[in-house]
């Protein structure tokens, strides 16, 4: 821990410049920055707190399925939900009711965490994250707070880091009370890191139990009037470097079918200037959702730069390309597009959901592509209704099979209670 905290001590030198950059790039507001440093207004929290943490939008969408059960079974506790970025924060605020506190998670500096812990008095941390924060774990355990990691996964890169820092790893591992690993690959990585099997369980991925949001049918009809369902692909959560490849694929696809449409949903909506510049290079006609521009028949690309509307885009598109997978980013969830009956295309980099994508590809429940030409070909292939329905059916049988939610939720609630 000494080496780690020495590194953090040096990092203080860069805090103010980093904060200014984050404000300038709109990755934070003054309010969310204060939250990162545990600077809160005075608040009288009457009850003990169950702290729920979700790293990003995907994790928040999953953790959302557990919170109603937490409120039902722990009525005398406060519920605090933290997230790591402003996009998830904005979405959480829309979703939350007045009885749920929403904040940005504290940085892993001891002085920040001590202020946070003293303020909220958490008795349980229920975390959904793919990283481990040593000070968070260590300081919470000193207050006898339980730490339970749900839907847990850890990347190869992170696992390698922890293996190289064995003293820090061993100290951290002993303070985590229980881990619910989201699949076999995650389970094996945690075992190799030294987690005791008595503190480790392999479970179903909680994402499969998320109920679909109600999507206004009139909104879907409005979109499909200009962007026909059969001819439209949703690009879900694209990252820097991917848009150029996707736009190249779109250009190729248009040579065979001039009616094709695209709804492009960037992972970070603040990147509009960069993305529109790339679209201009291809001379495609586009409109931007946040600017309330009225769709037209000749609009080719709709830039969906708003928060919390992915269910609408999945419902409006017969096909979804799951981004974060054309470049070595790790990919995003295949569960949600399938939930809304949108057939899946994905790239070759999917380490975040390795086991489930392997099963989808093996059983022809999705199409894997490696370059723009293959993406265009997969799009054209899935436009064939019979083939798309077969692909979607296989995906649903894999991703949405069975219903073990009650058993899994009860296991998590039991670990909290004991």
Label this structure with key terms.
418 residues; alpha/beta; Rossmann fold; 2 domains; seven-stranded parallel β-sheet; 16% strand
Write up what this structure looks like.
The structure is a single chain. The longest helix has 15 residues. The protein folds into two domains: 176 residues, 3-Deoxy-D-manno-octulosonic-acid transferase, N-terminal domain (Rossmann fold); 183 residues, Glycogen Phosphorylase B (Rossmann fold, 3-Layer(aba) Sandwich), CATH 3.40.50. With 418 residues, it is of the alpha/beta class. The protein starts with a helix and ends with a helix. The chain is built from 20 helices and 14 strands. Helix 8 links the parallel strand 4 and strand 5. The mean pLDDT is 90. The protein is globular, with a radius of gyration of 22 Å. The strands form two sheets. A seven-stranded parallel sheet has the order 3-2-1-4-5-6-7, sandwiched between helices.
Radius of gyration: 22 Å
Report low-confidence residues grouped into runs of 5 or more.
Answer: none
Strand content: 15-25%
Structural class: alpha/beta
- CATH topological fold name of the largest domain: Rossmann fold
The quaternary organization reads as single chain
Spatially, the strands of the biggest sheet line up as 3-2-1-4-5-6-7
CATH class of the largest domain: Alpha Beta
């Amino acid at each position: 821990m000494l080496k780690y905290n020495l590194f953090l001590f040096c990092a203080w030198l860069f805090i103010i410049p980093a904060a200014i950059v984050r404000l300038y790039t709109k990755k934070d507001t003054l309010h969310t920055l204060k939250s990162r440093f545990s600077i809160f207004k005075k608040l009288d929290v009457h009850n003990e707190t169950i702290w729920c943490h979700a790293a990003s939008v995907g994790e928040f969408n999953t953790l959302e399925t557990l919170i109603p059960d937490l409120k039902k079974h722990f009525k005398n506790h406060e519920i605090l939900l933290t997230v790591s970025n402003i996009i998830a924060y904005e979405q959480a605020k829309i979703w939350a009711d007045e009885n749920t506190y929403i904040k940005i998670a504290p940085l892993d500096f001891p002085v920040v965490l001590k202020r946070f812990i003293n303020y909220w008095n958490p008795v349980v941390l229920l975390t959904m994250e793919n990283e481990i924060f040593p000070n968070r774990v260590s300081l919470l355990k000193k207050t006898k707070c339980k730490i339970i990691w749900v839907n847990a996964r850890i990347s190869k890169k992170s696992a390698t880091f922890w293996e190289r820092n064995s003293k820090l790893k061993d100290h951290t591992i002993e303070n985590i009370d229980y881990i619910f690993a989201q699949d076999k690959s995650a389970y094996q990585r945690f075992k190799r890191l030294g987690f005791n099997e008595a503190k480790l369980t392999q479970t179903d991925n909680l994402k499969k139990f998320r109920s679909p949001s109600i999507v206004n049918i009139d909104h879907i009809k409005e979109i499909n009037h200009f962007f026909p369902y059969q001819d439209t692909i949703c690009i879900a959560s694209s990252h820097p470097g991917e848009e150029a490849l996707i736009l190249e694929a779109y250009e190729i696809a248009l040579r065979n079918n001039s009616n094709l449409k695209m709804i492009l949903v960037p992972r970070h909506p603040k990147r509009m200037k960069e993305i529109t510049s790339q679209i201009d290079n291809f001379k495609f006609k586009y409109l931007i959702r946040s600017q309330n521009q009225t769709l037209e028949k000749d609009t080719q690309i709709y830039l969906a730069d708003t928060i919390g509307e992915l269910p609408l885009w999945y419902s409006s598109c017969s096909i979804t390309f799951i981004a974060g997978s054309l470049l070595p980013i790790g990919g995003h969830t295949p569960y949600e597009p399938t939930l809304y009956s949108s057939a899946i295309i994905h790239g070759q980099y999917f380490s975040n959901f390795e086991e489930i994508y392997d099963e989808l590809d093996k059983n022809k429940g999705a199409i894997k592509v490696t370059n723009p030409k293959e993406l265009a070909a997969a799009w054209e292939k899935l436009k064939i209704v019979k083939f798309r329905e077969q692909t979607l059916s296989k995906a649903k049988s894999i991703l949405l099979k069975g219903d073990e939610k009650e058993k899994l939720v009860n296991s998590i609630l039991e670990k909290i209670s004991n």
